[in-house]
């Protein structure tokens, strides 16, 4: 039976203690904006001062008009430093506005976090540490951990004014036993990471930026994506993510589009060395995700997306996909039903 075949592949990945890779699609169900909404927000909010900024922003808007998506439009363009700061600030503002609303719902216990239940299911065995690698700035993964009372670490010490863990990562112990912990590797930064005017980094639970003195530490799509990653805290986050990806025996990707050169090469390298299961679950699989699964992931791949009939699954027997009518396997809840 078709559903049994899909379930067997999904359960094999689930049982491999996979690294969980979160893309923007994993946050969309919580009302967080995607790249299209961010592009519209930047077009509305970004203003320029002087000819240099105006010329730089004109190149970006022309790329938008030509049909390029946000990352394409910002890639390869040397923009003035002040314009770059404006784009970073407005990017933070756009994502933060929605994250703040989500936090308010979470505080009132009005938000459902399927990712939290997935985390619990993955930690149900003897596994003590779960690695989540994400390109997202938002705090959905953190809220999901909180929703099921699982400790998480994002590379900073606990507290209100948090410093980097540095070379000695924090471990959590209770009654002499190590506690289950989710390590969240935020390779593009986080809404609560900031750089002070003296160049030092801190993490703080802010939902409003002060007028001066703090710069959000997020790697915006395109132009500064790689130059910033040589600095802390990005370097440590990427190194931690690399270790997790290099050592994993499976990958469970949620809403990840395979458009990021920080993550995809590590998964590809592992797939070439060893037959590891790779499962990608999304409302809509990107063309890049389908290409990776069909041409690079090896034989143990599974992709699931929404279809007009229910779900559409891509695997070795049906690399171009086959519909599974009447079921939702593409959402986190639906995928959990499939594997548990």
Key features of this structure:
single chain; alpha/beta; Rossmann fold; 3-stranded antiparallel sheet; 14 strands; globular
CATH T-level topology: Rossmann fold
Structural class given helices, strands, pairing?
alpha/beta
CATH homologous superfamily heading: TPP-binding domain
In helices, the fraction of residues equals: 25-40%
Low-confidence stretches: none
Q: Proportion of β residues?
A: 15-25%
Protein name: SIR2 family protein
InterPro entries: DHS-like_NAD/FAD-binding_dom (IPR029035)
Pfam family, one: SIR2_2
Organism: Shinella kummerowiae
Structure description:
This is SIR2 family protein. Pfam families: SIR2_2. InterPro entries: DHS-like_NAD/FAD-binding_dom (IPR029035). With 340 residues, the protein is of the alpha/beta class. The protein has one domain: Rossmann fold, CATH 3.40.50. The chain contains twelve helices and 14 strands. The strands form three sheets. Strands 3-6-2-1-10-11-12-13-14 form a nine-stranded mixed β-sheet, sandwiched between helices. A hairpin with a 2-residue loop joins strand 13 and strand 14. The radius of gyration is 20 Å and the shape is globular. The model has no long low-confidence stretch (mean pLDDT 91).
């Amino acid at each position: 039976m078709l559903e049994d075949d899909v379930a067997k592949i999904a359960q094999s990945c689930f049982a491999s203690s996979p690294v969980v890779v979160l893309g923007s699609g994993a946050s969309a169900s919580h009302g967080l904006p995607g790249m299209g909404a961010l592009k519209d927000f930047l077009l509305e909010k970004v203003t320029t001062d002087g000819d240099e900024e105006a010329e730089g922003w004109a190149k970006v808007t022309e790329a938008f008009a030509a049909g390029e998506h946000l990352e394409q439009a910002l890639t390869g363009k040397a923009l003035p430093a002040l314009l770059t700061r404006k784009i970073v600030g407005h990017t933070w503002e756009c994502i933060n506005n929605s994250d703040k609303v989500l936090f308010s719902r979470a505080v009132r216990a009005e938000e459902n976090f399927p990712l939290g239940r997935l985390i619990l299911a993955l930690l149900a065995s003897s596994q003590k540490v779960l690695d989540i690698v994400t390109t997202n700035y938002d705090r959905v993964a953190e809220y999901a951990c909180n929703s099921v009372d699982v400790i998480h670490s994002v590379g900073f010490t606990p507290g209100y004014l948090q410093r980097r863990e540095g070379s000695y990562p924090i471990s959590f112990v209770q009654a002499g036993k190590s506690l289950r912990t989710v390590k969240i590797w935020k390779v593009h930064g986080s809404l609560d990471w900031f750089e002070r005017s003296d160049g030092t980094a801190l993490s703080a639970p802010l939902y409003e930026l002060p007028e001066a003195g703090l710069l959000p530490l997020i790697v915006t799509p395109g132009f500064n994506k790689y130059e910033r990653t040589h600095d802390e805290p990005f370097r440590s986050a990427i190194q931690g993510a690399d270790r997790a990806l290099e050592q994993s025996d499976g990958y469970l990707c949620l809403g990840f589009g395979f458009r990021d050169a920080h993550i995809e090469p590590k998964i590809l390298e592992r797939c070439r060395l060893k037959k590891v299961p790779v499962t990608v679950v999304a409302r809509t699989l990107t063309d890049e995700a389908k290409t990776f699964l069909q041409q690079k992931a090896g034989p143990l791949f599974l992709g699931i997306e929404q279809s007009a009939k229910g779900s559409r699954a891509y695997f070795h027997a049906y690399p171009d996909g086959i519909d599974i009518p009447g079921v939702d396997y593409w959402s986190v809840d639906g995928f959990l039903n499939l594997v548990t």
